[in-house]
């Protein structure tokens, strides 16, 4: 595997990471509560992408391409999880009430776990690896697939981490209860909507 191949793959991964999606909205959701939860979610997303690298390296991801049922099951699981995260965030904000003077706190552990599961339950990541990795390799082996997976994970970590830091600092500049409450409500609503959309598309596929 040449340096040019790794750089080309990294460039493609950069474009993927910059595209808005469930992972970026998840990182935004936790970044509202502070830099540490946002970065923890970003780390979780990058670790979750390594799960798909392992799956592709083992050849299991081919099932998602060949089996509509397997793809639908993973998609439904991912949609339910996003819906759960969105609804839980909305309920926590409502429970905090109007007296809350800041964002509802989230632990770094829960943010990390949410990032891992969000990415690991996104079958589109598996199909991305399945479709793209062979284009950059003469022969797909466990080592070569994991190398490209590590590159994708690093790129995702850098992009999502930078996004988390920027978002948390922006929220800090707008540290007003009403602004924070609306941002949390909107981000939670987007997660729930993404979950509903994923479930709807899974049901129609």
From TrEMBL:
By its UniProt entry, which InterPro entries does this protein fall under?
LeuE-type
Where, per UniProt, does this protein localize? Cell membrane
Please provide, alphabetically and separated by semicolons, the GO molecular function terms listed in this UniProt record: amino acid transmembrane transporter activity
**Keywords for the protein's UniProt record, in alphabetical order:** Cell membrane, Membrane, Transmembrane, Transmembrane helix
Query: GO terms for CC?
Result: plasma membrane
Q: Is Membrane one of the keywords UniProt gives this record?
A: yes
**Which superkingdom?**
Bacteria
Pfam families, A to Z: LysE
From which residue to which does the signal peptide run? Answer: none
Query: How does the record classify its membrane topology?
Result: Multi-pass membrane protein
Transmembrane portions of the chain: 39-64, 73-91, 154-174, 186-204
Q: Which PANTHER family does the annotation name?
A: ARGININE EXPORTER PROTEIN ARGO, ARGININE EXPORTER PROTEIN ARGO-RELATED
Record-given protein name = Threonine/homoserine/homoserine lactone efflux protein
- Origin species, per record, is Rhodococcus maanshanensis
